[in-house]
Design goal:
single chain; alpha/beta; Chitobiase, domain 2; TIM Barrel; 2 domains; eight-stranded parallel beta sheet; 16 strands; 33% helix; binds 2-acetamido-2-deoxy-beta-D-glucopyranose; Hex-like_dom2; HEX_eukaryotic_N; glycoprotein; EC 3.2.1.52; beta-N-acetylglucosaminidase activity
Length: 594
């Protein structure tokens, strides 16, 4: 029953609007009663066990598929959910925030300390069925969830997969606030009913850890933030021309010679730790070793495999940025052997946790292949068959390991390579790339440097000679100006596509290239701008009525979500000034005549 106190609180709360839940759910209805969360709240897991659902032949099939969890998907799911429950309690009681910023000064927006509102003592987590896999491919897993809190404090999250439960817990956390004068947390929104599911299955961030060195803890913190945003892919761009930080035990020179300094490497244990940490949070890590361009760091250990290495000062003729250099093609047996050995060392360590491997393929420089002893030509038509065999060889090894490949758009749009249909083709240039990839019938990971690049727009990292000063002043880079969160939020990867083409847009990623970002500014460069991409991918740029989502709504919710990221140790930047959050709607630009 609601006590008189609840009613008083409800009256005071009537001025506040719901600014919870980022990304916005498919449907959400909230009330205006407050409920406390009991300090000893129990999360009760109700789900099927392996023995309930798996026949012996299922178990054998899974074992043959090679997963170490094969005989026990139920145990995997239960472990994942139990860990998520522990994190949920910590986040609710230790890493929460007082939302004073989202209410006008001097309003009584929270229940009175020690008030007699009801409380939530148990949260039931109902899993309707076990996950199809520990590392579901696009389209294989149902990420939907339903969340209900009634006025008496009965709370339930139900889902058809463990990742659905994880998403439901993230939304649950966003309904609760820390109290300003007590240790308790409360929701002002009871009763709550949410039904939710993502629009697009692959929602990721591409993190370049080769141009700058990032310690493991930075990668893990980023994975944490991805999970908060209901993003489920970390694209780990782990090597490039500048450095090779990935230890490959059977080829130790690669990292010992290609790393920036001793210590700046990911050991097999570090990599396993990252994969495990991500899997616990429902994030698949897609490792990319970009080839055949972006490979100069290989020359530190294997100089015979790289042509046009660090040409100076004429590097712009050979590469998009220094140091130039590209892997030999020419059906060179040494190159194929290198790739086979590399992948057979790496992929078995990835395949427990991820169904995808990214073979790269962007910005291949034709001019450099004049230096290839077999090809001796910069004519793309002459180079094409060699690239085709090179890429397909890598993809064969990927498939032999039970995984599917990802490639950058140039492989199919510039080099006309035919890849198998399990391949995901990643766009980075613009909306036209997305369209052209789908026209070819391939599944596409949407992206656009004109909208979803986080790194650039801040100005050049190259130095200019004083004689060229006037020509380049004020030293803008290729994607200036910086894409602010509103610009990122405005990009609809589905715009201009037919219904058939839209179905092929299975993913999207924001990109964190690291020319000018390192651990010191990682969080503030990525967050909360990547959250804007996260909402477009989860909820869609358009609302249910087909209208563009508005900045007035988004800025309030994103502002609140940003406070949650701060509370959980992610140094996300402010999205507007405090007064604007306090006065929702009063910071909308008014143009005379409109
Ligand atoms: C609380 O919500 C109920 C149901 O929507 C509504 O009838 C009531 O007027 C609200 N009370 C306040 C104080 O806003
Ligand atoms: C689970 O699957 C059922 C049956 O397909 C569907 O009706 C429901 O919406 C799904 N999601 C949840 C959260 O139950
Ligand atoms: C790829 O196809 C396009 C369009 O047919 C053509 O213009 C281009 O030359 C081809 N590229 C290569 C490398 O063959
Ligand atoms: C959404 O905004 C974009 C960019 O301004 C515009 O081109 C598009 O027509 C809008 N869509 C709708 C449905 O209003």
């Amino acid at each position: 029953m609601r006590s008189p106190q609840t009613i008083v609180t409800a009256l005071l709360l009537s001025v506040s609007c719901v600014s919870a839940i980022w990304p916005i759910p498919v449907t959400i209805s909230t009330g205006n009663s407050s409920l406390w969360l009991a300090q000893d709240v129990k999360f009760k897991y109700e789900g099927p066990k392996d023995s309930d659902v798996l026949t012996t032949s299922d178990i054998c099939e899974r074992a043959q598929a090679g997963s170490k969890f094969s005989t026990s998907i139920g145990a995997f799911v239960e472990k994942r959910i139990n860990k998520a429950i522990e994190r949920t309690k910590e986040d609710l009681f230790e890493y929460n925030f007082v939302p004073w910023k989202f209410h006008p000064r001097r309003t009584q927006y929270e229940p009175v300390d020690g008030g007699k509102e009801g409380s939530i003592k148990t949260v039931t987590l109902k899993l309707n069925k076990l996950d199809p896999s520990t590392k579901p491919k696009v389209g294989e897993v149902d990420e939907s969830y339903e969340l209900q809190i009634d006025e008496n404090g009965a709370a339930t999250i139900s889902a058809n997969s463990s990742i659905g439960i994880l998403h439901g817990l993230e939304s649950f956390k966003q309904l609760f606030y820390k109290h300003s004068t007590s240790k308790d947390v409360y929701t002002p929104y009871a009763p709550v009913k949410i039904t939710d599911k993502p629009l697009i299955p692959h929602r990721g961030l591409n993190l370049d850890v080769a141009r700058q060195w990032y310690p493991v803890e930075d990668v893990k913190r980023t994975i944490n933030a991805l999970a908060m945003n209901k993003m489920n892919r970390l694209h780990f761009h782990v090597t490039d021309s500048q450095s090779w930080p990935l230890e490959i035990p059977s080829m130790p020179d690669l990292a010992t010679k290609g790393r920036y300094f001793a210590g700046a490497t990911y050991s097999p244990a570090d990599l396993q730790g990252i994969l495990d940490y991500a899997s616990d949070r429902g994030v698949q890590v897609i490792v990319e070793i970009d080839m055949p361009g972006h490979t100069t760091s290989i020359a530190e250990a294997y100089p015979e495999l790289i042509i046009a290495k660090n040409r100076q000062p004429d590097w712009p003729l050979f590469a998009a940025q220094p140091p130039s250099g590209t892997l030999k093609l020419g059906d060179d047996p040494k190159v194929n052997e290198f790739n086979t050995n590399l992948l057979n060392d790496l992929l078995p360590r990835l395949k427990e946790h991820t169904s995808y491997y990214h073979s790269g393929g962007d910005e291949v420089n034709a001019h450099a292949y004049k230096d290839d002893p077999v090809i001796q030509s910069e004519d793309p038509q002459k180079i094409q068959p060699y690239i085709s065999r090179f890429v397909n060889h890598i993809h064969d090894v990927v498939r032999e390991n039970g995984m599917s490949p990802v490639v950058w758009e140039e492989m199919v749009l510039v080099w006309n390579i035919t890849v198998k249909t399990d391949t995901l083709v990643q766009a980075w240039i613009d909306a036209e790339s997305i369209k052209r990839i789908t026209e070819k019938g391939y599944k596409v990971i949407a992206g656009s440097y004109k909208h979803w690049y986080l790194d650039c727009g801040k100005g050049q990292w190259l130095d200019f000679k004083m004689k060229d000063f006037d020509q380049f002043y004020p030293f803008n880079d290729y994607c200036a100006p910086v894409h602010n969160w509103r610009a990122m939020y405005s990009f609809d990867p589905l715009a201009g596509l037919t219904d058939e083409e839209k179905k092929l847009v299975i993913g999207g990623e924001a990109h964190m290239w690291s020319e000018q970002t390192d651990p010191a500014s990682l969080d503030s460069t990525v967050w909360p701008r990547a959250s804007a991409v996260g909402e477009v991918l989860w909820s869609g740029r358009l609302d249910a009525a087909g209208n563009n989502r508005t900045f007035e709504d988004a800025s309030q919710r994103l502002g609140e979500f940003r406070e949650r990221m701060l509370a959980r140790g992610i140094q996300a930047t402010a999205i507007t000034q405090t007064w604007c959050h306090m006065h929702k709607g009063d910071c909308t630009f008014w143009q005379a005549g409109n």
